[in-house]
Design goal:
Layout (H helix, E strand, L loop, with lengths): L2 E3 L12 E2 L5 E7 L4 E8 L13 E4 L8 E8 L6 E8 L8 E2 L2 E5 H10 L8 E4 L4 E6 L3 E2 L11 H5 L2 E5 L2 E5 L5 E7 L10 H4 L5 E8 L3 E4 L5 E2 L3 E2 L4 E5 L10 H14 L11 E2 L23 E6 L4 E13 L4 E7 L5
Parallel strand pairs: 10-14, 15-22, 16-20
Antiparallel strand pairs: 1-2, 1-5, 3-4, 3-23, 4-7, 5-6, 6-7, 8-12, 9-11, 13-14, 16-17, 16-18, 19-23, 21-24, 22-23, 23-24
């Protein structure tokens, strides 16, 4: 059920102002570390139509398995053909209006704690992370809490990385939010967008790391190449200059580890360049009805992507879902690289 609440509700333990049972359509779009919004179409003759006003809260499920989430109304269109469109953003967007005083943090845990400890106004939000990353983050001027999440130099994502989950008033930063459930996306099975072949041809299968200085000369690995994870029937190797990573001449083990870390950070072996793979969510089809758990994909999950024509077997993240609240199913799921 889609419920409507007053703008100051924080408990959500009752039905609020009532259910919006006459909704024509309702979808929730969520992107990895990005957009989290609801769009609702409602008739002007529907129950509680007069109660739908800006800043009130719509409570709806964001995906097939998640708990209902609160979305604050920020825009409504004028009635057209007897219906309006309501736009609402997740309650976590309220943090755009919660300023944080300057602070310095030396770890991801300390940075998330400082968002609460240095808030300039009272806020019901709670911040948590399972990341143990050690690095310095400095907020030198009063800043919006939500702006510090990511999207700018010196933000939490920029310094520590991770994947956010917004659960009502809880903000959680995971090292890895999703998991690999064994789902496979391949031609002839459930892959519906064939244009991605052009993009995957630009995938590098490994790196040739080196370090160089005028005084000490060149350092490379005895095996020369460090391969990316995955299996490929072709080689496409990128020379990788790691001279800036070390002040002094590195040992081979250190150079190898730096190369492997670079490939992990930059998703080597994964289809890239704004990749968007369209595919059929098989758990929603009659044929796979009894195997739903084997073919479910959630936001931030890793799935196997098979391109037999190119001999590529790799993995990609689920970076966007569009959930149909009324039908309790995804309208679309996208895999690939999240936009910066």
């Amino acid at each position: 059920m889609i419920l409507l609440y007053e703008s100051n509700e924080i408990e959500f333990e009752n039905n609020g102002l009532g259910g919006l049972s006459d909704a024509i359509s309702c979808t929730v779009t969520e992107e990895r570390n990005g957009v989290f919004e609801l769009e609702l179409q409602y008739p002007i003759t529907g129950i509680h139509y007069g109660d739908i006003v800006k800043r009130r809260i719509v409570m709806a499920k964001p995906n097939p398995t998640g708990d209902p989430q609160p979305f604050r109304i920020y825009r409504m269109t004028k009635p057209i053909n007897g219906q309006i469109t309501v736009y609402a953003e997740h309650i976590s967007y309220d943090l755009s209006g919660v300023p944080v005083s300057p602070f310095t943090a030396h770890s991801a845990v300390e940075a998330m704690a400082n968002l609460k400890n240095n808030a300039a106004i009272t806020t019901p939000f709670v911040f948590w992370t399972d990341k143990s990353t050690i690095a310095d983050m400095t907020v030198s001027v009063p800043s919006s809490t939500r702006a510090l999440f990511g999207g700018q130099t010196g933000s939490i994502l920029d310094v520590y990385g991770g994947e956010y989950e917004f659960d009502r008033f809880d903000v959680k930063l995971y090292s890895q939010r999703g998991q690999n459930r064994g789902v496979s996306i391949r031609y002839g099975k459930n892959l519906t967008d064939l244009t991605q072949e052009e993009n995957i041809q630009n995938v590098y299968t490994g790196v040739y790391p080196y370090w160089y200085s005028d005084d000490d000369g060149l350092v490379t690995l005895s095996e020369k190449i460090v391969n990316a994870n995955g299996t490929y029937d072709y080689d496409r190797v990128m020379p990788l200059d790691l001279s800036d990573e070390f002040e002094d001449m590195p040992e081979e083990d250190a150079l190898r580890a730096a190369a492997q870390s670079y490939m992990v950070r930059n998703n080597f072996g994964i289809p890239s360049i704004s990749l968007s793979v369209s595919f059929v969510q098989l758990e929603q089809t009659e044929e796979y009805k009894g195997k739903a758990l084997l073919e479910r994909v959630s936001l931030c999950d890793t799935v196997n992507v098979e391109f037999p024509a190119l001999g590529v077997s790799a993995t990609a993240k689920c970076v966007k879902t569009v959930y149909n609240v009324l039908l309790n199913r995804y309208d679309s799921v996208e895999l690939g690289d999240a936009r910066t």
